[in-house]
Structures are given as C-alpha cells and as structure tokens.
Amino acid sequence: MSRRRGVAMGVDEFRRLALALPEAAESAHMAHPDFRVRGKVFATLGYPSHGWGMVKLTPDQQELFIQLEPEIFVPAKGAWGL
C-alpha cells in the first residue's frame, strides 16, 4: 500500500479513496476485494499478498512511481505488471 511520509495507508483508507472515484464500485476478483469502473478493475486489495494494494498504472506512471518511492511501489508480477 502507499505511504505518505512513512505512514502506511490502511485498508479502510484505500477503500475510501478507491470508492470516491466517479462510478467506482467494489466487487471481488480471485478472492480479493477489487474496485471497478464500468466493469473494469482498476485496483485490488490483498494482492500480491496480505497488506498490499494494487492500482493499475500506465507503464510511464509505473516507472515514475517506482523511481520516486521504490520501497512503496513495486511492479506486480504477471499480467498485473503489464
């Protein structure tokens, strides 16, 4: 999950931020809570493991976030990382 100045973001805050986006709804995918807009997953909780959250980013966004905060943001393995 993301951290602001060394503070971990909790599940409740992640969920609140995800659901604050226009048309966002919570669902489930592969036994993990996920967040969708118009049926497309843009974030999930508990992936790649408990205590983590995943947000889909463009390749350019991924590169930038990983460079800026390498201890917080890591590329996901498999299709999620693409």
Radius of gyration: 12 Å
Strand proportion? 25-35%
Structural class: alpha+beta
Average pLDDT, to the nearest integer?
85
SSE layout:
Elements: E1 3-4, E2 7-8, H1 11-19, E3 24-29, E4 32-37, E5 40-45, E6 53-55, H2 59-68
Antiparallel strand pairs: 1-2, 3-4, 4-5, 5-6
Describe this protein's structure:
- It is a single chain.
- With 82 residues, the protein is an alpha+beta fold.
- It has two helices and six strands; from the N terminus they run ββαββββα.
- It has helices at 11-19, 59-68; strands spanning 3-4, 7-8, 24-29, 32-37, 40-45, 53-55.
- The strands form two sheets. The protein has a four-stranded antiparallel β-sheet, covered by helices on one side. It has a two-stranded antiparallel ribbon with strand order 1-2.
- The mean pLDDT is 85.
